[in-house]
Structures are given as structure tokens and as C-alpha cells.
Amino acid sequence: MNSLHVPSLLGVFGHPDDESLLAGGVLAQHRAAGARTGVVTATWAPASRRAPELAAALAVLGAGPPRLLGYGDARNAESAPGESRLLDAPLDEAVSRLVTHIRDFRPDIVVTHDAVGQLTGHPDHVRTHQITLLAVEAAGLEPLYPEAGTPWQPTALYAATHSEAGVGQLRTLLGRVGKSVLTVPNAYVTTTVDVSPWAGVKWSAILAHQGEVARERPLPGILARLPEAERNAIIGTESFTRLTPGPVAGDPYRHRLLA
pTM for the full model? Predict the structure, then answer.
């Protein structure tokens, strides 16, 4: 076993399947290297139809059981009947729920959506980004959310993103089903990871979201209709932007994080 510390990784994403599409490669990579990995999902309730698919995907990735905040999807009323939509939930409440998971898992790294909402600008992606930024900072501050557990400060926060140069074929594919595509400036990307060695694991995790694979417009369904070589070219690279709580002098992960 390599004595070098492999940073633990916690993903925080808006919906079931976001974890596999956006960071499935680095989750599989870190797990294969012996790191602890986990995923918090902001929407869809534990009793919803997508929760078993999420559990199956996380099992493929080795990321443990689902951690669900339990809020409703902005565009799907069946996601969490009787619960607030993520967009309508009090900010302080949502941050508190996520702080509880961060303090419980104690990750070195947190990965979430980017500020523009990950390609299609889904409002749940944007809200999850905002909540995560606040929760990562709050998790390390003892006076904040004392009911959420012992303080823990992650070393790094990254946003999964797509640059103008890196979006590639996705612009055309999403455009064919009537979806607009939002990207970030190329300089916004601080880390690009070749996850092609884990593309098979990533694709198996995406396939676990069977309901989305069967539909025409969601990205899992779009990818499922592509030839394997084209699909692997799309899912074989993941891009990230380093956000708070750094850059930190002496950050031990600065030059090798997610690499």
C-alpha cells in the first residue's frame, strides 16, 4: 500500500446521476487508490424512484451509501412529495444539513457544481454550488451549526466544470435535444484529469441510472446512443476549478490533487 496520503473526497451534487457524469472518474480514481469517497445529493427523497439507482451507481464507484438532503427537484414534483424544493428551502436550513454531512464524513476535498450550473444551467445545480460554498466554510467554524457535529475544515473545494475549449461534442449533442450549453472561460479551469483508465467504471455508474438512460433528453440517454469510442472520448476527461478555502500556503494537495 502506498504510504502517501490519498485525500478523501466528498462529492456534493444536485441530482442522482450528476455524481457519475461529472466526477465519476475522479471518484473511481480516488477509491482505487485507497481513499475514502462519498456523495451527498441535494434532491430526491430516500423513498423516490431514483434513490435505488443512486445507490447502485455509488456501489459501482465505491462511494458508500447515498447521503440525501431530501429536497425536491425544481422541475419534478414526484422527487420529494411533501418536502420543499431545494430552490424554496431556507438557505440556513440547507447549509446546516450539508454541514452535518461534511462534519460526519470529514473529507479532505469537496467537489461540487460550478457557478453557472453545469452545462445546462439547471437551477438545482446553481443552488447546490451556492450551498456548498457556504457549508464548506461553515463546517470548520465551531460557533456555526453546533448541532451539526464536531467542526471539520476540508482542505480544498473544487467545482466540476466545462470550458469553452473542453465542452467538445457535448454542445452539439445537447443542442439536438433543445438544450442550451453554458461553459466557462478556458482560464477558469485549473485542473483537467484524464480519467480514461476509469471510463468503464464511470460508464457502469452512469448506466445504473436506468430511468435517465431510457429517456431521450437527459445526458445519460444521449451518451447511451453513441458509439463506444465517441462516448469514451466524452467521459474520459473531467475538468475542475479550485475554489475556496484556498489557495492555502503549503497546501499538500495543490500540485497533485485529482491528478
Answer: 0.93
